[in-house]
Amino acid sequence: MAETSPKKRKPMIGLQPEGDVDWSEYRGVLVVVEQRAGVAKPVSWQLIGEAKRLAEKLAAPVSALVMGANVSSLAQEAIYYGADVVYVCDAPELEHYRTRPYSRVCLHVIRQFKPEIVLMGATNTGRDLAGAIATHLPTGLTADSTELDVDEDRLLLASRPAFSEKMLATILCKQFKPQMATARAGVFAPNPRDTSRTGEVVVVAPQMNPDEIATEVIEFLEEQKKVNLQDAEVIVAGGRGLGSPAAFELLRELADALGGVVGASRAVVDMGWISHDHQVGQTGVTVRPKLYIAVGISGAVQHVVGMQNSTWIVAINKDPDAPIFKIAHYGLVGDLFQLVPALTKAVKSRKA
Ligand code: FAD
């Protein structure tokens, strides 16, 4: 059977428009910027940084899409972080995220400007929006990617842990464009904010009249988070080695002395020693602090995947063969009940 040209592949499923599609028109990497109340989520700038790296390999531009109400200033920010072109849809009906009006704008921009890759944060909003768009186009979507690359055929190589982290699956979307992926916050590094960068801003009209939108946001209640791991520069995280919930007090003292917050492994969250918003890892939060101190944590792959990009990792564990030492920059082998108070004392005495 003759091979179909990679540029003119016939769609394999019936949802696509009839006939051959010329995918070669699709060029560049588009990042959908997520914001709330006009404040961009850091994952948006992290993805623009990663998009820039991919776009350099593709010799193609990076674009960003900003949607919301009173969000035009974010266009300039997107340019400072690396976007060459920013599409802005600024309308009162986009004040709060709703799937249909947001996905209509995304679909319009994708169909009109034809990016070959579309990236979004793997946040609640990003997961909802990316799924809706991929279904409508239709195209393939790799959720929760932890590594992104492109090959010589301009195919996106989106890797993500699979089979309970036992393997890393690299997923390709060979038949359709754009190739879509979501990635968690903290996985990629943003480019430094460069205020000398310039770019083009393209204004996009909303694609639905307000009276066509079936859902209405009555009130928006901000979730009361007890801890903000994602923005913390220092995290002191505890695991089963603490032996009891009371021992978290030792970690809080060290975290306070260092101006940080307390994190945790899933084992202690599952035992009810600390709430889930403290959990770092595959089913918790992905973090990228300047300093991560892992106390009584063995270093299971599901934990490591959430903190391995920390700038400095210090591990405290009584078992010299604990896997956490393989990724730690500094390891303290010993009893945490002696080492943690000694560290806290040392930090406090340096500050005094
Ligand atoms: P343990 O593995 O029991 O390690 C305790 C450590 O404490 C040991 O290394 C021990 O030597 C040390 N220790 C004991 N006493 C002392 C002492 N006095 N002083 C110093 N050291 C001491 N885990 C996560 O953390 N985050 C996730 O998001 C996550 N998601 C998961 C998703 C799936 C699908 C699955 C299957 C698992 C997931 N897990 C996750 C669980 C993960 O596999 C591990 O079970 C868990 O991370 C282990 O937690 P721990 O390191 O606290 O406990």
Automatic annotation (TrEMBL):
Matches recorded under InterPro entries: DHS-like_NAD/FAD-binding_dom, ETF_a/b_N, ETF_a/FixB, ETF_alpha_N, ETF_asu_C, ETF_asu_C_CS, Rossmann-like_a/b/a_fold
A Pfam short name: ETF_alpha
GO BP annotations, alphabetical order: fatty acid beta-oxidation using acyl-CoA dehydrogenase
Cofactor note: Binds 1 FAD per dimer.
Protein origin, superkingdom: Bacteria
Residue ranges occupied by any Electron transfer flavoprotein alpha/beta-subunit N-terminal domain in the UniProt entry: 29-217
MF terms (GO), sorted A to Z: electron transfer activity; flavin adenine dinucleotide binding
The family this protein is said to belong to: Belongs to the ETF alpha-subunit/FixB family.
Protein known as: Electron transfer flavoprotein subunit alpha/FixB family protein
Source organism of this protein record: Alicyclobacillus mengziensis
